[in-house]
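User: Can you help me understand a structure? I only have the sequence.
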Amino acid sequence: MDLLLNHRTIRKYQLAPVADKVLTNILECGIRASNTGNMQLYSIVVTRDTEKKDMLSPFHFNQPMIKNAPVILTICYDINRFSNWCSLNHTKTDFSNLLWLLTGTIDASILTQNICIAAESKGLGICYLGTILYNAPEISKVLNLPFGVIPVTSITLGYPDQNPPQTDRLPLDAVVHFEEYKDYSEERIQSVYRKKEELDSSKQFVAENSMENLAQVYAEVRYKSEDNLYFSKKLKKMLLDQGFVFD
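Assistant: Let's start by predicting it. Here is the structure, written out as tokens:
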């Protein structure tokens, strides 16, 4: 519990490599995660090669840790392997629907968090890369992902070369509902976000972006509508090309 409560996102890593034995142990902990029907509809692509990192870097917006981290793990929803197994055994599969896309994504996410916890228990640091969904088609080409394999999330992995402060979190009563969901009054909204808004880092964030408040920074700068729509259309096209049906 101390490990979980003291989690920090690590974006700078030592040059020290992650030994094969250590990485194997971490990945084995990952695949012990719960998953739907014990089908394990996921795959993990391990990237250590410098040239391959260089190829991935632009699609992760050239974040320095892509090249700095000794290991990058790309976790994928994978129906390719399971479908091939079913075909070899003369049965049919049809997982090209929203339900199974979400189910496989959840399973892959649980796997990833197991990996992260195992890695931190070994003294390693991790950073989740949200950029994976922005450029999933391009990343798929770099990693040679076949039909039925879709990148879901990615993490950098290595020995920390920094000890950053913990990222703030909303208070527990902001996100926990007992017995049934209790909607938020204006007063409660203001209350649960007040501490976050009053952080020096938040005030600096607002000033740097010439905005009036922190909510505007999130909605109009970091995750603005036109960007969301652009990347959503690109991801949707990829999923449609993969045969997923949403109607």
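Now, to help you interpret it: Strands lie at 42-47, 71-78, 125-128, 149-158. The mean pLDDT is 95. Let me know which part you'd like to focus on.
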